[in-house]
C-alpha cells in the first residue's frame, strides 16, 4: 500500500500540478500553506497534515481523502475504533526507512496470524480518474446554495468577482446551475462568503466534488447550518443525543412533533411555519428509517415523559411509540431519573455524531435557542463525550427504560380513563 507522501506525489504528477500551484490555490481558498510545506508532505518530511488540509488537497487534486491517506477501503462499509487507530498508525509510518518499514510489516503479519486474521488485502495506489462533470440536479443544488450564501453575506455578483479575480468564475452562470465551478473555486467562494466552519464547508464541497447526489436537505429553504447537520446525520453510523425538554426529534410521532415545533417556534428550524418545519422532521425520520445500520443512542430527562405539550391521547401515543423504539436493536433509549439523579450536565440538549471514515473525527452539535452550533474542536468534543459517558452510566438500563415508560403509560392511561 502506498503511503500518504507517495500518493500525494502521484496525484500531483498525474494532475499536472506543481507544489507552488497547489499552495497558491489552497491559500486563495482560505487555507494558507506554503510551497515548502507541500514539498515536505510530498517527500514525507511532514506526516501529520490537519483534516482541513487533507480535504483541501483532495478537493484540489480531485481524489477522495480515503485514497489520499492510503486506505482504499475507507469509502465503503463501517469502520470501528480499532480501524481508526490502525489507519492512524499507517499514516504515522510515513517517512520511515525501508528497513524500519520491513520490521513494521513483519510485526503486523505476526500479529494478524496470532489473532487468526486473513492476510492483508492487496490495495492499489493507482490514481482514480478525475471526477466527471456534475449532473444537472447537482449543479442546480450547488448553484442555489452558493446564491443563498452570497445573499447572506450581502455581496453583489460584481463584488464577488472582484474579490476572487475578474474572470475567475462566472457567478451568474454558477448560481443558475448552468456551469459547475471547480471545487477549488468553491473553496474560494466559501472563504469570500465568510464560511469558516469546516463541517459547513465540507457539506458544500461534497456536492461540488460530485461525491453525492443532491438531497432533500439541499433545498434553498433550509439554512446552510441546518442542512449541514442533516447531512452529517445521514452519514453518521452512531448518533448519541441528549434531550431535556422534548422527545428527540428522531423518535417523535408526527402529532407530538407538531406540538414540539409549535412550543419552540418553527424559526428554530429556519422555517416560517409549523408545517414547513414539521416536513423537515418527517424527512429526517424517513431518511434514517431507510438505513438500519445507523445506531441511535438517546438519553432523555424523565421530565420529558411528564411534560404535557399536547392532548393526553397524543402524549399516550408518543409513550407507546417510545416503547416500540426502545425494543428496536439499533435504538438504545435511556432516562435520567427525576429523583436523585447521579449526574446532570450543565448544558442544554446536544448530539454527537460518529462516522464510518477512519480519518474523520467525531462532531458535536449544541442545540441552541435560535439554531445549532457545530463543535469540531477536539477538546470541546471530548467534553461532550465525557458528559454523555457520565450520563450513560447513571441512567436507566434498557430493561429499566421499558419499565419507566410502561409506568408513565399506565399513569396517563388511568388519567384518561382507559
Automatic annotation (TrEMBL):
PROSITE patterns: HTH_CROC1. Residues 33-68 form the HTH cro/C1-type domain. Residues 115-136 are annotated as: Disordered. This is Transcriptional regulator with XRE-family HTH domain. It comes from Nonomuraea polychroma. GO terms for molecular function: DNA binding. InterPro entries: Cro/C1-type_HTH, DUF5753, Lambda_DNA-bd_dom_sf. Signal peptide: none annotated.
Amino acid at each position: 500500500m502506498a503511503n500518504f507522501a507517495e500518493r500525494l506525489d502521484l496525484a500531483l504528477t498525474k494532475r499536472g500540478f506543481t507544489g507552488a500551484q497547489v499552495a497558491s490555490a489552497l491559500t486563495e481558498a482560505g487555507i494558507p500553506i506554503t510551497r515548502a510545506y507541500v514539498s515536505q508532505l510530498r517527500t514525507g518530511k511532514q506526516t501529520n497534515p490537519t483534516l482541513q488540509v487533507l480535504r483541501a488537497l483532495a478537493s484540489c487534486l480531485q481524489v477522495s481523502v480515503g485514497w489520499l491517506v492510503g486506505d482504499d477501503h475507507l469509502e465503503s462499509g463501517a469502520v470501528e475504533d480499532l480501524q481508526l487507530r490502525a489507519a492512524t498508525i499507517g499514516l504515522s509510518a510515513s517517512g520511515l526507512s525501508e528497513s524500519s518499514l520491513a520490521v513494521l510489516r513483519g510485526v503486523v503479519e505476526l500479529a494478524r496470524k496470532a489473532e487468526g486474521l486473513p492476510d492483508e488485502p492487496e490495495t492499489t495506489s493507482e490514481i482514480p480518474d478525475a471526477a466527471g462533470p456534475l449532473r444537472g440536479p447537482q449543479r442546480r443544488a450547488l448553484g442555489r446554495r452558493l446564491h443563498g450564501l452570497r445573499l447572506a453575506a450581502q455581496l453583489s455578483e460584481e463584488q464577488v468577482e472582484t474579490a476572487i479575480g475578474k474572470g475567475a468564475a462566472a457567478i451568474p452562470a454558477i448560481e443558475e446551475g448552468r456551469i459547475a465551478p471547480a471545487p477549488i473555486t468553491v473553496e474560494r467562494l466559501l472563504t469570500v462568503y465568510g464560511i469558516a466552519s469546516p463541517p459547513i464547508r465540507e457539506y458544500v464541497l461534497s456536492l461540488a466534488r460530485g461525491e453525492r447526489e443532491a438531497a432533500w436537505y439541499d433545498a434553498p429553504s433550509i439554512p446552510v447550518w441546518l442542512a449541514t447537520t442533516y447531512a452529517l446525520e445521514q452519514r453518521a453510523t452512531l448518533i448519541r443525543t441528549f434531550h431535556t425538554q422534548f422527545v428527540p426529534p428522531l423518535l417523535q410521532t408526527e402529532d407530538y412533533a407538531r406540538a414540539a415545533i409549535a412550543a419552540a417556534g418553527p424559526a428554530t428550524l429556519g422555517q416560517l411555519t409549523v408545517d414547513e418545519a414539521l416536513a423537515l422532521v418527517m424527512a429526517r425520520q424517513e431518511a434514517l428509517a431507510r438505513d438500519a445500520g445507523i445506531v441511535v443512542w438517546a438519553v432523555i430527562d424523565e421530565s420529558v415523559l411528564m411534560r404535557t405539550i399536547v392532548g393526553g391521547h397524543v402524549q399516550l401515543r408518543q409513550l407507546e411509540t417510545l416503547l416500540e423504539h426502545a425494543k428496536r436493536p439499533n435504538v438504545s433509549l435511556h432516562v435520567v431519573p427525576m429523583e436523585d439523579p447521579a449526574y446532570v450536565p450543565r448544558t442544554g440538549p446536544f448530539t454527537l455524531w460518529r462516522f464510518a471514515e477512519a480519518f474523520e473525527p467525531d462532531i458535536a452539535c449544541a442545540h441552541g435557542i435560535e439554531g445549532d452550533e457545530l463543535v469540531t474542536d477536539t477538546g470541546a468534543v471530548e467534553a461532550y463525550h465525557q458528559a454523555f459517558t457520565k450520563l450513560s452510566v447513571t441512567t436507566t438500563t434498557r430493561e429499566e427504560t421499558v419499565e419507566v415508560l410502561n409506568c408513565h403509560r399506565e399513569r396517563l392511561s388511568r388519567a384518561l380513563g382507559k
